[in-house]
Design a protein that fits this description.
Layout lengths: L4 H11 L1 H4 L6 H6 L15 H16 L3 H8 L8 H13 L2 H16 L3 H7 L17 H9 L10 H45 L5 H18 L6 H23 L14 H10 L10 H15 L20 H7 L6 H4 L3 H7 L13 E3 L21 E3 L7
Antiparallel strand pairs: 1-2
Length: 399
């Protein structure tokens, strides 16, 4: 399959034009942004002159007698130029985000049928295999065609240019996963080392800092996004995740004075998790007592375990919660689609939004009562706590 992806897509649309656009699901419009008129009608990504160029190239393709000759026009291997048409095709392909749309659709088919490369790797490959063969996804071919070309794509048995185009598209989708696998394999040693060092630093520290937890969480999260390709590494990842979970949960529970069970996420009782929990018991988290530290490490915990709002409530002391205008907002507003968030107080919102201390990064902490501008270089040094001209700023609930 040596044809590039954008050539295969255009051949799919040209060769199936007489029947695939009968589809009523609007799949073709969503993926390709086209109707049966293709580029004969205005296109939001192309000018009139650009459409003229691609239509001239399409006309040349239709005059070629063989599929080889047609692809030579599309891929710059034919006498006569058509470079302008190819550039327009490339522009439309990129602006419409065709590759991204098709990739999402095809991946959903692979996952639903249990034949995505990552799923097959985790199920186990044949001896000597490193990556699954595309033939392992044979059962998905028809569903792949339907998901990108609409419900009428199988009205006729795929053959000729239409058949070759869908085979090329499926091939490109498979190879995209292979590239992801290779990148993950290349980056695995570095990510394993970074996670191991970050966890060990916390384990051996006399006092654990929020910075150490932030670095460790980042390293373990990066490793987790790679390890999905490598089942044999998942036990070690479980050890690191359980270690961080125990450290954070113990610190938060102690400071908030709540039972540990109320703020923890249940994890599998694997050997790796057991090792992680055991390593965490000797960690000293007594230095993590400042409110800002606790809020920050709770946000890290939510990030690491991808906790959903409402699925796990952030620990909080009800007496410390300030309204910040929330009641007035609720009394005077209509339903703006934020019902779920409106039930949350400031503490919980700050945790879920990962705003340590209740403020996002680069938040302007002060405003001048006399109109000084923080962007004025001469005034910057005056925006400090002990300046009587300054008023402290904080996010209101609706913000």
């Amino acid at each position: 399959m040596s044809h590039n992806l954008q050539s295969a897509v255009l051949m799919l649309l040209l060769s199936g034009k007489d029947w695939i656009f009968e589809d009523e699901s609007r799949t073709l419009q969503e993926v390709f942004g086209l109707t049966e008129k293709l580029f004969d009608e205005p296109n939001k990504h192309l000018s009139t002159s650009e459409r003229d160029s691609i239509r001239a190239m399409i006309e040349a393709i239709r005059k070629r007698k063989s599929d080889d000759a047609r692809y030579k026009v599309l891929e710059g291997k034919s006498k006569g130029g058509w470079s302008a048409g190819r550039e327009v095709l490339k522009k439309w392909f990129q602006k419409q985000k065709v590759s991204n749309h098709m990739g999402q659709c095809i991946d959903e088919v692979y996952n639903n049928l249990g034949v995505s490369p990552m799923q097959l790797i985790n199920e186990g490959l044949e001896e000597g295999e490193e990556f699954p063969n595309i033939l392992d996804s044979e059962c998905a071919k028809e569903d792949v065609l339907l998901t990108i070309a609409g419900d009428h794509a199988l009205k006729h048995v795929p053959h000729g240019d239409f058949h070759d185009a869908i085979m090329a598209i499926n091939h490109h989708a498979w190879e995209r996963h292979r590239k992801c696998f290779r990148r993950a394999k290349d980056g695995l040693p570095t990510k394993k080392l970074a996670a191991a060092v970050a966890v060990k630093e916390i384990e051996d520290a006399d006092e654990v800092t929020a910075q150490q937890l932030r670095e460790a969480t980042k390293a373990v999260k990066a490793l987790s996004m790679t390890v999905g390709w490598f089942p044999e590494e998942q036990d070690k990842l479980g050890e690191y995740e359980e270690f961080l979970k125990e450290v954070v949960v113990v610190a938060v529970a102690e400071v908030r004075k709540v039972a540990k069970e109320k703020v923890t996420v249940k994890t599998d009782n694997t050997p790796g998790c057991k090792r992680g929990a055991q390593r965490a018991r000797k960690v000293k988290t007594g230095s993590l007592v400042a409110a800002g530290d606790i809020e920050e490490i709770w946000a890290l915990y939510v990030q690491l375990f991808e906790t959903e709002p409402g699925q796990l409530e952030a620990p909080q002391d009800e007496e410390d919660i300030e309204n910040s205008g929330r009641a007035a907002w609720l009394d005077n507003s209509e339903d703006l689609g934020v019902d779920g968030w409106s039930e949350m107080d400031n503490d919980k919102l700050n945790h879920l939004l990962q705003f340590p201390g209740g403020k996002p990064a680069l938040f302007a902490e002060f405003q001048s009562t006399t109109g000084l501008c923080a962007w004025d270089e001469a005034s910057t040094s005056k925006f400090v706590q002990d300046n009587e001209d300054m008023e402290s700023l904080a996010l209101l609930w609706h913000q």
